[in-house]
Fold:
Amino acid sequence: MEEFEEARLTNKVAAFKACAASIRSAKDGKSAIINEEKEAACTWIGAPSPINPMVPGLPKNLRPKALDTILDMMISEDAQIMLTQTIIKRDSLNESEAVDETLNEIDKAKETQIQQKGQYSRRYDYAAEDVERYSRQSYDGDHKTFRHSLVARIDGATRKEVNTLTSMLNFNLNGQNILTEQPFGGHLRSIKAGLPTNEIIEETFTDVQGNTVAMLWPARNPIQLMSRKGVLLGFHSDARTPLFADFDSDDFKSKHFAVFGGSGTGKTTAELYIDYNAAATNCDFIHLSPKEDMGTSHLNAIKALNGQLLKIGDGTEYDPNPWMVHFDPETMGESAAARRYAYRRTQVSLKKNIEFLIGSNFSTPMRAAFIATAKATYLKTGLVDKKGNPLNIHKWKDGKNWPSYGDWRKTCQEWLRDESKKSKWPSIQALLDNTEEMEEGNAWDWMDNHNTFDASGRFITIDVSGLEDGVKEAVTILLMDIINMRLKTPSPEAYRKKRRTILTLDEGAALLSTPNQAKYIVKLIREARSGKMSVCFDNQDLDGAASILPVLKANTDFILLMCNMTMENVEEFGKEFYFTGKDKARLMESGKGKYLLLRRGQKIPGEVVLTNKMKGIFFGETNQESRAGVCISDNYEIDSRVIWIRDKGLIASNWITKLDDYEIEGFTTTDATSVMGGSGKFPVWLADGILNESGLIDGETEDHWVTCYLAAGELCMAGYTDVKVHNWGGQKVEDMPDITCISPSGERIWIEYEHPGSHSIGKIESKKQKQAPYCDVWICLCQKANYPQVKAAVGKPFCVMRGVNFARFIEKHGIKKRVDISSGSEQSGARTASVQYDTYQEVPIDA
Structure:
């Protein structure tokens, strides 16, 4: 009882401390003190500039991930961020009056400038055009206008933690052209406005449209992401961020996925898109298509990749022989045990093939008779003995030496004349009766062949559209068996070196419709996983889909549900998945190539975005013009401050303000580690041909060159000037660092980047001694891997790790510039005083 009472009192104390029982302003006005235990500082986000009301607090093209940027600022366990969003809907009359008032203010500002300077800024015309356009959209009912306020409150145990988070928040939002302001002496008022009271802060309000309100709604789910690299599946429909599937990552356990979509949803194009992108990431792909009209898309894609198109069932050399043991010494090894395994595995595959061909008529006695006659047929070839040991292995690779269904039928007829086999006669006769279609001139006669089926190419499309139902499924499973045996690896080392294969089974989900087939398919996809193959199950028939979903959920990492569904389709999937009203609306949304990606309880809206090159290959479309022999494509816009780096040969995804086609002419997409922090890597584009034969760029390694220009780009974006990168060979002497620039406060900053293992401690120290006297601030940028060595060489104050520490450094020395572009608040001005005396002797980045 005593322990229970103690726990109750502890909970009461915790609950009390969580409440703002006592709030007072700090003496310097830079924060508020809550319960005499923690400090809190507020930031007004998106409020219009008090210096120039024509400068909007929020950019016209606000990125959907702006809210995620705020929430991702949590880097301390002892601090937290709370957001208060206030929205007031304008009625029609009030909205009209607000538009008229804004237009009058713009006219007055124009007149004032004309009187003072004889001319006015064209920005006023642009602002007026935006106001008129928004007003028209509201009148037409496309949008509604709201008065909007967003206040961030940062609580921390110490002033240092609060200041650190506040600085990072301002830096990241200002980089997205979102204005911020710290209310010097007004934190208490801001906190009160964030509590459930009627008090608001008029200065924080700005007029926005409904979509902006939704983007900044603090209770919405964050923008969901898949992997940061791997096979591109499409783009997030809201955030326009790429959705990758990294099948080699431990986050993907089964390595397989499924696609559901009816006719006309863009399902086939989506699968072809995934195949094409898999090839771009050095994967192989095999696509089994059952459609009678594959169209030119498959044919053109295979042709563009120099792949193979194999049509099954036409009586050509492409027809596989189910009896041939497909053995590849390079992938399976040279041992007799490996060949014995391949032979026995082929026997299992053959047994399943005949079982699926005959269907429900296949009985247990027939199975026993088939096993016996098949073994006898194999023994006639002299390629195996009674125990399955390999013989004459030099003949194994030629299909002519292996038996066929025709040879097996001859064995069956021989046994019918052998009195010693009389007990099996009824079953053998039943087998012959059920395989009459294999006789010459009948529908299955193509199965009687001695071909050497070659499925060893990197990119293969197999057309099984000419096969009848039932046979199509049996052949698909047979092909999976053959492919699995081809991909088997003899050792972990061989597994690591081999490329991943994406096998797309068009209409493959139908294979799970019967328990017998489903059980064998599950076995096959587990084998596929061990052979570094990822299987895509496709299903067009949405009716009754719920019956196969449990098997797919247990054996896939994610499922794509193509949009354009009917309510009945949605309800069918709703038997297995929980859908909100928003999810249902998404699934019934019209348009091709749109989907809802289901993974680990997340529902991510995505869509296929074809590049101009893909449109040209798949559909023969083109959206480019030629000027003087140069292919021009206006498919992206980049921040003007980093155009010079683009011209050097690098584009970072966070510098792009508009991207309609992720393939940029003259550039190849890759990934790089961000110099500003964040998990994993992010997309960048390198100019074609920029890497020489030795893998160097301007005499530097790719990591060194890319890191230096990424850092230079971030400096430019933060308002630094005279930013230059000095490549090896261009530096001439060691006295010149990798990067030089001028900070917004006028400091001459020199930055040297050290890649792990590139120089000794003594060499790094020598660089500092030679370069530091010529600048105000000198630092050595490094990675986590070589941080101890660099710190030992130059000292902790001069050592800045790539990532969050470098972001803090840029923010710290760019703080004066940020004051100029935000609101000129007294608090921001006061904070500059703490950094204006920095010299090259010390750079305390954590201050």
Remarks:
- Residues 624-633, 816-847 have pLDDT under 50 and may be disordered.
